[in-house]
Amino acid sequence: MRRTGRAVRPSARHRVSAARPALGLALACAAAAAALSGCSMEEATCGGGEYPVISVGGTGSACVPNGEEPPEGYTRYPEGKVPEHVGDEWDTYWQTHTVDEDGNIVEVPEGQ
Fold it and tell me: What are phi and psi of 43, to 5 degrees?
């Protein structure tokens, strides 16, 4: 029996392929954790500690710190019709509607 004295090492190809299942498992675990924790990928309308307001007579909006009143020319959204995330039902609705000076919800004329 002949011995060469060389150590047998796995090729680089084997080391890379052994890492792939571990990476896949880590990504799957991260996705499952996000889904189970209720983590959302939706962009919030306003940051924490703020609430959204709409411009009177227009479709513009802004975010106001909690505890502060809306600035001049803005008002609070009507109760139950506040957008929470970009692209949600109310965010889409308020692209074509606004609140007038009397607090009534009205359609915005095209082109405004």
Answer: -85, 125
